[in-house]
Write a structure and sequence with these properties.
Layout: H1 3-24, H2 34-44, E1 51-57, E2 60-65, E3 68-71, E4 75-76, E5 79-84, E6 88-91, E7 96-98, H3 101-104
Length: 109
């Protein structure tokens, strides 16, 4: 075999090996493997009620729950809002939503 044929064959093999390796690399712009798990966990928690904010203006009070505005008497996910306090909302099923619960809870109580 002539040296030209050998070098051409080696170059061709190097190109094939390089392209085969490129196919097995992971795309760095794709979300990580845990992103799918986190997305499914977030969608399963969509039924949870989260008190985002309380707005008091004079005697009127409004609560932002799951990024939507509600007043006393409104229904959120089928449950009536009975009271809106400065940092909590009481619901007719007995639940009480609080803002920043992890921060406002005190140890030992």
């Amino acid at each position: 075999m002539s040296p030209l044929k050998v070098s051409s064959l080696v170059a061709l093999l190097m190109l094939l090996v390089t392209s085969a390796q490129a196919e097995t690399l992971r795309d760095p712009t794709r979300p990580g493997y845990g992103a799918q798990v986190m997305a499914s966990a977030a969608s399963s928690q969509s039924s949870d009620l989260v008190l985002n904010s309380v707005i008091k203006s004079g005697s009127a009070s409004r609560a932002v729950i799951n990024n939507k505005i509600f007043e006393v008497g409104d229904r959120v996910q089928g449950v009536r809002i009975t009271a809106i306090e400065i940092n909590s909302v009481s619901l007719s099923d007995g639940r009480k939503l609080t803002m920043y619960q992890a921060i406002t809870e005190s140890k030992g109580n």
